[in-house]
Design brief:
about 65% helix; 23 helices; about 475 residues; Rossmann fold; five-stranded parallel sheet
């Protein structure tokens, strides 16, 4: 059992002895009372971040506690800071507090989906601060025991430990039930997880249960029941945005694009509290022919993302495409030039040529577009095909109309999409399907042409069933070994 759990149960002083803390606050005078209280609780390792970039860099080192002041940035909302913080890969899951003098329900609701452990409302007493910190620390340490077992793939032990810890710490019974279900899901014991959820829902439901149950049902292609559970969840607790996100993705996946858009749009301002959601909504608006909404939502995503971990070059390429469609090529070039503020040099270097290819295609100058694209592909081939997902997609997209399907597929297959959000991954997978079909059709046409030439020259026996395999993975694997033109 951890030090914090022992000290809490036996009343030992300095319960946070040995813990590390990061305080994100630009006001030095406001840091002192918090530092003093942390020192009294046994904390000796305290670092300070004075702005958002400093917070993101420092958090990657790993802390037990992070305190984020709501006034850390004039340009960034607290929810966007928490969203970016969640994107940063960190060695451990820490306790996150938000410190603010804003006690309005709208402010608190804007932070719910990023699940800070607690809020500290100014002005606060040392007693209140101490109580909240020690309570949150105890909870985090207790849950981390089960999380460690899940990470080590000791699923049976995680299930047993969840039950035991729920009895030992009944105040966290709901949290340990969730960890138990997560352990079963991770172990692929889905029938057991489903049975547990269904039983608990009849007694006392919570939105996460309905979302997880829906995901299990989707895995069995039981879309109708999954949709029913998600609709129930969104109507019961609308502020639990994960329900709306899951429902909109399900609706989109079942070709109910308009309903998917409406589901997110009905969230009101809460719909704008996530960069990934704004991107998805923008994409849905585009599919529905809502040009102005598509552009407006995309701009909101760009503004909210800033130039940190949330930023994606795909947003800038999409906006540049809109400018090209509006016959504003110079604005399109200026738009993608902003990629230099957050991406690798290669991503910036490839951005302007992609815009030039798009502009040439719009003008009907296919030869000019082909020349620009081939030059870009030669450069990529000489320097390596591994690009950020947004850049890879933008380049692959312009390859298709110019007959460079093999190069496009090679580029997409070489791209690591683990950091990309749902909409970009969806677009990349859709493009792969189009490329695979085009590659198959080309190969089939080539085969028929070869057969025709063989017949006119001399008879040739062909093997039964000789054809190009259309399987995407097989074809993609072969493309990786092909030289670029």
């Amino acid at each position: 059992m951890s030090t914090i759990l022992k000290t809490q149960k036996h009343g030992i002083s300095a319960p946070l002895l040995g813990c590390s803390v990061l305080i994100a606050d630009r006001n030095p005078s406001a840091q002192k009372p918090l530092k003093d209280e942390l020192n009294s609780l046994g904390v000796r390792n305290i670092d300070v971040a004075s702005d958002v970039p400093d917070l993101m860099r420092s958090s990657a080192r790993g802390y037990d506690f992070i305190f984020v002041d709501s006034l850390l940035s004039d340009k960034r909302s607290t929810s966007s800071i928490l969203e970016e913080l969640a994107k940063i890969k960190r060695p451990k899951k820490e306790v996150v507090f938000v410190i603010s003098n804003d006690r309005s329900s709208s402010f608190l609701q804007s932070l719910i989906e990023y699940e800070p452990d607690d809020y500290i409302i100014k002005p606060y007493s040392t007693e209140d601060l101490s109580r909240k910190i020690t309570r949150a620390a105890q909870k985090r340490k207790a849950l981390s025991i089960v999380e460690g077992l899940i990470a080590s793939r000791k699923f049976d032990e995680a299930v047993e430990t969840s039950d035991r810890m729920a009895e030992e710490f009944p105040q966290y019974k709901r949290e340990f039930f969730k960890k138990k279900v997560e352990s079963l899901v991770a172990a692929d014991a889905l029938p057991k997880a489903e049975a547990l959820i269904r039983k608990q829902i009849t007694e006392k439901s919570h939105p996460w249960m309905e979302v997880l149950l829906a995901q299990i049902l989707i895995g069995r292609d039981e879309f109708s029941e999954a949709e029913s559970w998600l609709r129930k969840s969104t109507s019961t607790i609308p502020e639990y945005t994960k329900s709306a996100d899951a429902l909109s993705i399900l609706l989109y996946s079942t070709d109910k694009v308009e309903e998917a858009y409406f589901t997110l749009d009905s969230l009101g301002m809460q719909a704008h509290s996530s960069v990934a959601r704004l991107r998805f909504m923008s994409g849905l608006a585009g599919l529905l022919g809502k040009g102005q909404e598509e552009k407006s939502l995309l701009q909101k995503a760009i503004d909210r993302a800033g130039h940190g971990a949330l930023a994606c070059e795909s947003d800038y390429h999409r906006m540049a495409s809109i400018f090209v469609d509006e016959s504003r090529p110079e604005d399109a070039i200026n738009c993608v030039s902003a990629i230099k503020l957050f991406a690798e040099a290669a991503d910036l270097e490839h951005a302007a040529p992609v815009v030039r290819v798009k502009a040439a295609l719009k003008e009907g100058a296919e030869g000019k577009a082909r020349e620009a694209l081939f030059g870009l592909l030669r450069k990529i081939d000489s320097r390596g095909w591994a690009l950020r997902p947004g850049s890879a997609y933008a380049i692959a997209e312009v390859c298709l109309p110019l007959g460079k399907e093999d190069a496009a597929m090679k580029l997409l297959v070489a791209t690591d999409c683990s950091s990309a959000d749902f909409w970009l991954v969806e677009k990349m997978e859709s493009l792969k399907e189009k490329l695979a079909l085009a590659i198959k059709e080309k190969a089939e046409a080539s085969r028929l042409n070869d057969e025709s030439e063989s017949i006119t020259s001399k008879p040739v026996m062909h093997a039964r069933g000789s054809r190009v395999d259309g399987d995407l993975a097989v074809r993609a694997k072969g493309i990786l070994s092909e030289p670029a033109e």
